[in-house]
Design goal:
The protein is built from ten helices and 22 strands. By secondary structure, the chain is an alpha/beta fold. A hairpin with a 2-residue loop joins strand 21 and strand 22. Helix 4 packs parallel to helix 5 and helix 5 crosses helix 6. The two termini are about 25 Å apart. The structure holds zinc ion (ZN).
Length: about 375
């Protein structure tokens, strides 16, 4: 069956199309035109709205009461259904530091599900899909571990990395690494050579230590400002380089809790529309009432939008549609620049594509002039907002 979607404009990295008509067939985009050829076909019409590729989250742990490390359809289906309602079509399933055998089990379970997305479908429901794995740990700093359990942190070890890489069967796309650890630069070069992007974070690194890992190929920074040595004018540290090295992408958790609005504006001025990435770092309580939840293997208390464990922030309950409206409110950035931070930039950082083009999956969102999500479509299926 052929479905038409129309709106005021279509935004993508390639530019803007006014009055677009997107034709969808078999869950894929069959054509993008500007003429309404047939109103006999069912149409979803969003007058005044902007259509753009659905969002991509490179740092995501869980939602709907489940953690991605459960690595089974019973967890990833409700997670994917919740994400679909918030405009996210694809994500990197992100691990937290855990015993190595538990991480290996989660990674190989996730790899099987990523390779077989049909196993995550349930009826006609739109489901966001994991398209790769992000290892947040175990090679992180003790000083800036946040809630990552200290007893399972490790110094960089290529043999351990290779076991995780093999378990991921080609689906490991990103690893967060603290640059100051011994062997970090060697591991960064090794991971990069295997096609795994390195994101610097959970780190107390000096500028010199950071530069060495940048030289080894680091591509991004993990939740800028959070679990990161603060800025100092004599020792710029990791943050000084993250904010000034133009080639480096940088994540931000824009929930108004992890980073103050003034610092969101600083990050925006520094990284801009080419290198900023809005992530959620969402954990299992996302989309759920206040209470006690799990992140990886430990308990987290959630109250009033704040997820805490042992007195520190433990991930977020943020969704990407909310990250967008927060970001627009905090910065006053124009919508067409902000959209890159949830679509083109994360996708390009890990080397995938975000184009809305003929033949690509019909993953798109409709956004109003204030950045609010009006509709979310995953593989041609409209989610209830
Ligand atoms: Zn995280």
């Amino acid at each position: 069956m052929r479905t038409l979607v129309t709106a005021a404009r279509l935004w993508s990295a390639e530019g803007i199309v006014e009055n677009p008509v997107i034709e969808i067939e078999d869950n894929r985009i069959a054509a993008i035109t500007r003429t309404k050829e047939s109103w006999a076909t069912p149409a979803h019409n969003f007058p005044g709205a902007t259509l753009c590729p659905a969002f991509f989250d490179v740092h995501f742990h869980g939602a709907a009461g489940h953690d991605v490390m459960e690595a089974k359809p019973e967890a990833l289906q409700p997670i994917g259904a919740l994400l679909a309602r918030h405009g996210t079509a694809r994500y990197l399933a992100t691990t937290v530091t855990a015993p190595l055998d538990a991480t290996l089990r989660a990674v190989s379970g996730l790899a099987r599900l990523i390779a077989n997305p049909a196993s995550l479908q349930s009826g006609k429901q739109p489901i966001a899909r994991p398209v790769g794995i992000h290892l947040e740990g175990p090679f992180l700093s003790h000083e800036k571990k946040g809630v990552q359990p200290a007893e399972h942190l490790r110094t960089p070890d290529i043999a351990v990395f290779d076991r995780l890489y093999e378990a991921a069967e080609g689906h490991l796309h990103l690893i967060t690494l603290a640059p100051e650890l011994p062997g970090a630069a060697e591991l960064a070069a090794h991971a990069t050579a295997r096609g795994v992007r390195v994101s610097m974070g959970h780190s107390n690194a000096t500028a010199v230590e950071t530069q060495a890992v940048l030289n080894a190929g680091a591509a991004s920074a993990t939740h800028t400002f959070n679990a990161m040595r603060p800025l100092d004018h004599r020792e710029p540290g990791i943050l000084g380089l993250v904010l000034t090295q133009d080639q480096l992408y940088a994540e931000l958790i824009c929930d108004g809790i992890h980073v103050a609005p003034d610092m969101v504006r600083l990050w925006w001025k520094a990284k801009g529309e080419q290198r900023g990435i809005l992530v959620t770092d969402a954990m299992s309580a996302t989309g759920m009432p206040d209470g006690e939840y799990q992140l990886g293997g430990f308990a987290v208390q959630v109250a009033n939008g704040r997820a805490m464990a042992r007195g520190v922030l433990a991930g977020s309950v943020l969704t990407q549609d909310r990250a967008l409206t927060n970001f627009l409110e905090f910065t006053g950035a124009p919508l067409e620049k902000a959209l890159r931070l949830l679509t083109t930039n994360p996708v390009e950082m890990i080397g995938m594509t975000a184009a809305l083009a003929e033949g690509s999956p019909a993953d798109l969102v409709a956004i109003d002039a204030d950045g609010r999500l009006l509709a979310s479509m995953i593989e041609g299926r409209l989610a209830k907002i």
